[in-house]
């Protein structure tokens, strides 16, 4: 228990310094061309096909449809009262694509994908992240 607290404390102390080391690309369209809107099925396909793709952009529709899918399946798993291991497996399967689509969505607003770390500091950080995710594409 003490080791876990120590590791978390060290991680929280180091995180701000990572922002000093990272320099995002400069100029307009620094993360590529603006993403195009997609429908629900295509958003789910992109959610899983871009599993480790942290580059490029994700449109608002791609991001929010993916979040809707994630929330709906999570709710369904809880509603049918599945064993905890089912939700744990679901969480493990979706954590990487969740982070990658979030990074690509922030790229579409012309922000660094690393800024999704802000959402870990609830409640203010979560509100800030949601506002960024709702912003229109930036150049």
Brief digest:
The protein has 139 residues and is mainly α. It has five helices and no strands.
Write the layout of secondary structure elements.
Elements: H1 2-21, H2 40-49, H3 60-79, H4 84-108, H5 124-134
Helix pairs in contact: 2-3, 3-4
Would you give an account of this structure?
- By secondary structure, this protein is an all-alpha fold.
- The protein has one domain (2-134).
- The chain has five helices and no strands.
- The chain has helices at 2-21, 40-49, 60-79, 84-108, 124-134.
- The radius of gyration is 16 Å and the shape is globular.
- The N and C termini lie far apart (46 Å).
State mean pLDDT (0 to 100 scale): 86
- What kind of sheet is the major sheet? none
Provide the β-strand percentage band.
Answer: under 5%
Helical content (DSSP H or I, runs of 4+): 55-70%
Gap from first CA to last CA: 46 Å
General form: globular
Q: How many domain modules?
A: 1
What letter string, H or E per element, gives the SSE order?
HHHHH
Extended strand count: 0
Instruction: Work out the radius of gyration.
Output: 16 Å
Low-confidence parts: none
Helix count?
5
Structural class of the helix and strand makeup? mainly alpha
């Amino acid at each position: 228990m003490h080791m876990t607290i120590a590791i978390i404390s060290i991680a929280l102390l180091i995180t701000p310094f990572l922002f000093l080391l990272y320099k995002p690309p400069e100029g307009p369209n620094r993360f590529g061309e603006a993403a195009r809107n997609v429908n629900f099925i295509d958003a789910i396909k992109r959610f899983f096909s871009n599993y480790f793709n942290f580059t490029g952009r994700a449109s608002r529709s791609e991001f929010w449809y993916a979040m809707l899918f994630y929330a709906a399946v999570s709710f369904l798993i809880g509603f049918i009262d599945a064993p905890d291991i089912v939700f744990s497996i679901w969480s493990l399967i979706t954590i990487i694509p969740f982070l990658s689509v979030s990074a690509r969505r922030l790229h579409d607003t012309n922000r660094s994908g690393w800024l999704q770390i802000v959402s870990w500091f609830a409640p203010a950080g979560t509100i800030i992240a949601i506002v960024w995710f709702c912003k229109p594409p930036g150049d």
